[in-house]
Known about the structure:
Blueprint: H1 2-15, E1 20-26, E2 33-38, E3 72-76, H2 78-89, E4 98-103, H3 118-121, E5 133-135, H4 155-158, H5 162-173, H6 181-185, H7 210-223, H8 233-237, H9 244-259
Amino acid sequence: MTDNLRKLARELLESGKASVVIGYGDATLPGRTTPVFITSAAEADRLVWNEHCLNNLAVYLSSRKFKTDGKIAIVAKPCDLRAIINLVQENQVKREDVIIIGMVCSGMKDNDSGKPLEKCNACMEHVPKNCDEIIGDPASAPKPADPNAEFISLEKLEAMSPDERWAFWSKEFSKCIRCYACRQVCPMCYCTQCIAQKTQPQWIPSSQTPKGNFSFGMFRALHSAGRCVSCGECERVCPVGIPLNLLTAKMRKEIREKYGYEAGCDPDAPAPMCNFKPDDKEDFIR
């Protein structure tokens, strides 16, 4: 797959169809990868594809700092591809400006333990959809997991009483150091000014306090409702190990059950938090 990826990148750059290819390259530490930006055919051999291509590269499409002339070609796993679709739906990127190189994915492995990532064990989509190019053999992809597999981790949490859940999350967010890594790595966190750092008015205490930490965590979870594509990057980069995937999984479960919606799966499906019906009975506020 690496050879085919490099070949395609060379073709796109030589023909002028793309001005840059965003992909993965070898990192300084053995067995790890890092995002790379390939702007010439001569650099195409820097691209790699393996079980350590963890980053969701869609974050660069929503970044205000990343700008380029011409089309952007981007390497995307199926879960990353859903983030790109979300960005198109939210008018953060034009679909015609992006060449999506979908990679058939058998799952990623944790850099430290070498074990498959938990999110990959519950993956329902190993073959990319809605892309321009596909690299890899779809027939070799693992079978999709049960649609409810990702929610198994919620069973213990949902069995708790409200007081127990409050105690659980209060303890977890007490560890937060407000580094904002979870926000920075999320493709859907593209606001030019985050509510967590607004001071006039101040919605969330900016200091590392229980109140501020809890508010920030809850705000991020609510903002992910109907938008999170379960790429798992927020929890992966958290330096203190807060189980953020539990929060986002809960949001996805609620959205699926109440709206029958899966973020980033259908480009034509209206997002549940971005539309309304004038004849809605609004029973929930009565």
